[in-house]
Every structure is written in structure tokens, then in C-alpha cells.
Amino acid sequence: QKEVEQDPGPLSVPEGAIVSLNCTYSNSAFQYFMWYRQYSRKGPELLMYTYSSGNKEDGRFTAQVDKSSKYISLFIRDSQPSDSATYLCAMTDFGNEKLTFGTGTRLTIIP
Amino acid sequence: DSGVTQTPKHLITATGQRVTLRCSPRSGDLSVYWYQQSLDQGLQFLIQYYNGEERAKGNILERFSAQQFPDLHSELNLSSLELGDSALYFCASSAEGGRGEKLFFGSGTQLSVL
Known about the structure:
Chain A is mostly beta strands. Chain A has no helices and eleven strands.
């Protein structure tokens, strides 16, 4: 079993919809949680970064972490065609620089 | 543009061969990370260097090696290549070698082993 599980999709939603992306993990030592967006043939780019449990909002994006359930989510409001990409969750424990990534969810926003 | 430069963008080679992938980090960044991305395994951490020294090691095969030079650029050497080594190899850099925050990825080198 992988340390981080992420539904690969693909996920297709109409423009303007709310998108929910999720990851579960097994390592209770993980403290730092990130969401990356990866466009085709490009490197991942950091979208959201959170520490421990709680919510963080940045524009149309909201990241949630529930450490008790070992579950993290990314919500995208008012989704746009430009949000079409693969979304990767990533996490690491305290003092450990290496990130453990989910396999990514491919998202398509339909105009 | 993340500011991280990787060359070459594409590499096609045969089994048993050796290749070198090159990475130039963002100006001022001291840490360089190497990741391998394949369809079935996703992004896997290989190795990290900080200011010329190895800082952390992940699932890097013994056939693979890396180094970071005094000018902070890094090279990933892959030898005795196998079909399964075909993947996208990413380099990333960060200023402090912290916990993943402000990690900037290059556009990757697509390696095809035939």
C-alpha cells in the first residue's frame, strides 16, 4: 500500500463548478501538506502549503487538512478552463525535506 | 517560468547506456532535488543536495548518482539503463532546503530507453 493515495481520475466538471480533490495518507508523522498543479509537459508548481490541521484559503483555492482522519482536500471554486491540469498532493514530516507525492488527479474543466 | 533550467528536454537512448541530466537551480537557491515521475509510480524523490553536500536520499538506484558543483548546478547520472528507467526526471530547487515550501520545479527531462 502506498503512503499517499490519490484518486487518479480523470475528473471532468463544467466551468463554474466547485471541484473537490482529495488524498489520504498512512504516515501519522506527516506535518506539512502541499498541493501542486502540473500542466502537460511542465513541472509541478506549488499551489497551497499548509502546516498541521486546519484550513487555508487563497483566492479560489481552499486547502483542508484533517490529521485525525489522515485526509487532505483541495477545493477549487468557480472553476475555469485554465484550471485543467493534474493536481498532486504532497506531504512531508518534520525535519524531512523529501516530499511524498500522490499519483495525481487529472482534472478537466469543460467550457 | 520557474527559473529552474533542465537540459536536455528529451533524451532517447538504448539499454545499457549511460546518460547525464543537468540542472541549473534558480539564482540564489542552495538546494537541488531530483525526482522521477512515471505513470505507475507518480513523482518519486531521488536525492537532495544542499550547497554541494548530499542532504537526503530517497528511492535512488545504485546505478544512479548525482552531484552538485560549486556553481550550484547539479547533474544526475544514470548508468546501465533499463527499459524501466524511462520516465520524466525533474529537478527542483529551493532557497533553504526546508520542508517543501517554495520548491520550484524545472520542466523536466523526458528519458526514453529503447
